[in-house]
Amino acid sequence: MNSLEFRPSVDWGNELLASTLWVAKTFGVTAVCLAVVLVLLGRYTEWGRQFWRINGPYFTASASRATVWLMLAGLLASAILSVRIAVLLSYYANDLFSSLQVAFEGAGQADGSRTGSGVDGFWQSMRIFAVLATIATVRSLGDLYLLQRFTIRWRVWLTHRLLDDWLGGYAYYRGQLASTPIDNPDQRIQQDVDVVTTGTGEPNTPSHGSGNTLLFGAVESILSVASFGVIMWQLSGPLTVADVTLPRALFWIVIVYVLVATVLAFWIGRPLIRLSFLNEFRNASLRYAMIRLKEAASAVGLYRGEGAERRQLTTRLDAVVVNYRHWLNRMVMFLGFNLSVSQAINPLPYIVQAQRLFAGQISFGDVMQSATAFHAIHDALSFFRNAYDAFASYRAALIRLDGLLTANAGTRIVPQLTIGQSSDGAVQLEDVDVRTPDGRVLVKALDVRLDAGESVVVTGPSGSGKTTLLESLAGLWPHASGRVRFPVDDREVMFVSQLPYIPLGDLCTAASYPRPPGEVDATRVQQALVKVALPHLVIRINEIKDWAKVLSVGEQQRVAFARILLNEPRVVFLDESTSAMDEGLELMLYRLLRDELPTTILVSVSHRDTVEQHHDRQLALLGAGGWRLDPVSTAS
């Protein structure tokens, strides 16, 4: 250091304009380069194609895509500004330590002007720091808020997209019938969507900023290498070892060292993707088994099945632990390698630059700025190495969401009934075939017409396909063909299963399902409950409970009949819907339907002879595809 007085390392008076221009130019170049890279990743990498398949419409076709791109632009600008602030802080640190060096040296030489120059430089550095710290704080808080808003909007959109895809075309039901059913769609839609939209490889928390995400973390890392690389190049000097001189030694050492370490880290960390996927899969399987145990608690208790359940849960837990141990071992190797290579290189910038400091070629501030730049480049290049485990988790979440979309699409390409609309309010079945998944024929060439007010009871031995026929007519069962025509409005056709579905919420909502909550007047709900012999529930219609756990099966079936009265469908299919009632209640409810809904078409599946009296005709399934349709009075 040849100067006797302190001189700032940059022209702070013009730095606002210079930094603004730098941010603007860097934004333009970075945006173009980032767009090109993302397009290439989306086209030529498997995970990029999966990401685009899952999220592409959000960025290209959603109603709020303009806002989405504006928010992304704001986050990119924030990442660039973060790098610029870090660079300016390195210059501030240079000025701080250089000013202290000048002040100390001037005091030792009794040079008042030199000491004053150093002191003035010190306080100027403090003022610069105050400005930079304020800008950094505002940027950090703004970045945090913007990223969280962006993440929330994205998560809401993606959740709706996957829910619509899962509910569309009865994929939620048909997926269970596939040869390899998709596991835990609920977890995929809830947890994996959270991981994918957060972009950090883990569920979102309010403390995540753009620097925590894989995308903007990578952008900041590359920009940091470019920005601090210039500083490092300017401050690096030659290093001679064993008569071999390496020019710009510090610059080349950090580049080569980190690149080699990154390649090795990728090789060590590659199995983490599969292990992370298996960890999610096996934990979800364990959780699902416990949920099923909770739902079937009464049956398990009656069977005294605690031991069997304990063995099953232990088996699933053992699978979780075995995989977790493999995951832990690989993670220890991965993190141990990363920590070792990071710690090993920490003192290098001081060792290399100390020789030049002792020779008076650079100032103490230059040494500190060199170390800052060195560690910034090291950390930036190490981002890809350190983030590999986060990328592994992110990749596993993408695989699971893509698998869900693939499974849903698979359920919609299988043959099925052609369901149309009738203009005269009749139900018309034409050439309907129903088969088992292995191709065995249950119903062959069924042709039936039901006009308003007519009724038919479907009978046959167990396994003949009675319930499967109803599921086929509803569009659920995929192994069916032919045509069926229903009245125009979907709400005018109601299928009632043996164990009715009772949604979460209050009893009023459960009784009027599937209508939206509040659409049916509470007084009508109370009247319907009285009509189906549930007067004791009238005063409880606003209670929010898990009513499927509170009501007996017989009461749930009566709630289903109240549901029919409130929805007033033109066609009702009842699948063993009075199996938990005595014959008196059954008689009362069927007469109630005929009195309240005289023009409604009624189709019942039942093993009880007592149900036949409430119908005009009997459809007997004979097995091997055979069937017979007769008036009830002459059916045999």
What would you note in describing this structure?
The chain is α/β, with parallel strands linked by helices and 636 residues long. It is 61% helix and 11% strand. The protein is built from 20 helices and 14 strands. Strands 8-11-12-6-13-14 form a six-stranded mixed β-sheet, with helices on one face. A hairpin with a 2-residue loop joins β13 and β14. α3 packs parallel to α7 (214-235) and α17 packs across α19. The longest helix is centred in the N-terminal third of the chain and has 56 residues, at 112-167. It starts with 14 loop residues before the first helix and ends in a 5-residue tail after the last strand. The mean pLDDT is 88.
